[in-house]
Design a protein that fits this description.
This protein is α+β, with helices and mostly antiparallel strands. Helix content is 55%, strand content 8%. Strands 1, 2, 3 and 4 form a four-stranded antiparallel sheet that branches. The chain has a two-stranded parallel ribbon with strand order 5-6. Helix 1 packs antiparallel against helix 10, helix 3 packs across helix 5 and helix 6 packs antiparallel against helix 10. The relative contact order is 0.12.
Length: 242
């Protein structure tokens, strides 16, 4: 889910004054001036619970003169969950499973020692948790070259992903890509850690490099955009937990 901002002149103008949340047919829809919002495939934008619907409505309410889809991550995820996920569940589950073969939390730095220790402090407890709670036992390696992981662990990740409803599965896939780690994404989905914590654990190497060499404005902006997506994920998974 790209969050690259389009040019302002290319964005549609805001055409509505009021945003409301309305219960309908077992879900909660978003209405703009009393008219239901549609997904890109023209389905009704219906959310599975009121909390998630209100988070989505907040995104529409926060729009200014123009509507910027990159500032609406929950809406974008909901569109995918409704329009695409029902038809691609197996592929999405395979994507999560594939990450377990090269998972970030398994690739430890060869050096320096301080970086390696930071990684192990933050990553090892989650590797242990994944094995204990989900049957996803992953083996750590040094460096970036992948090492074979147990087939049973990859299959456990796939089956868990398939067990989720369309919204949770969509969010899990998004989180996996954002963090570069199925383990971190699963820990958030299961409530083991929160989305912001997972994001910081996903960028230990990046933070280390910044400490050594500094950070330019463009890189800082990109990090903040990813952090905003992590915050949106936090709202989304918290809504599921209610």
């Amino acid at each position: 889910m790209s969050n690259t901002s389009p040019n302002r002149q290319d964005l549609p103008r805001r055409f509505y004054k009021t945003v409301s949340v309305v219960e309908s047919d077992g879900g909660w829809r978003i209405e703009l001036d009393g008219r239901p919002v549609k997904t890109p495939a023209k389905a009704e934008l219906s959310l599975p619970n009121e909390t998630l619907a209100r988070h989505t409505a907040d995104e529409w309410e926060a729009q200014g003169e123009h509507i910027d889809p990159t500032a609406m991550p929950i809406t974008r995820l909901a569109n995918v969950a409704i329009d695409r996920t029902p038809h691609t569940r197996e592929e999405l589950a395979q994507e999560v499973a594939k990450y377990t073969t090269t998972d970030l939390v398994c690739h430890l730095a060869e050096g320096p020692t301080e970086l390696r220790e930071r990684q192990e402090e933050k990553w090892r407890p989650l590797r242990d948790w994944a094995g204990r709670s989900l049957g996803i036992v992953l083996l750590p390696v040094e460096g970036v070259i992948a090492s074979p992981q147990p087939d049973a662990s990859t299959e456990a990740a796939r089956l868990h992903a398939l067990s989720l409803d369309d919204f949770r599965l969509t969010a899990l896939v998004w989180a996996t890509g954002l963090y570069g780690s199925a383990v971190l994404a699963l820990a958030v989905e299961q409530g083991e850690i929160d989305a912001d914590d997972a994001f910081e654990r996903s960028r230990i190497d990046e933070a280390w490099q910044i400490e050594q060499w500094g950070e330019d404005a463009e890189a800082r902006q990109a990090t903040e955009a990813r952090r905003a997506d992590a915050r949106a994920l936090g709202k989304l998974f918290s809504a599921f937990a209610r």
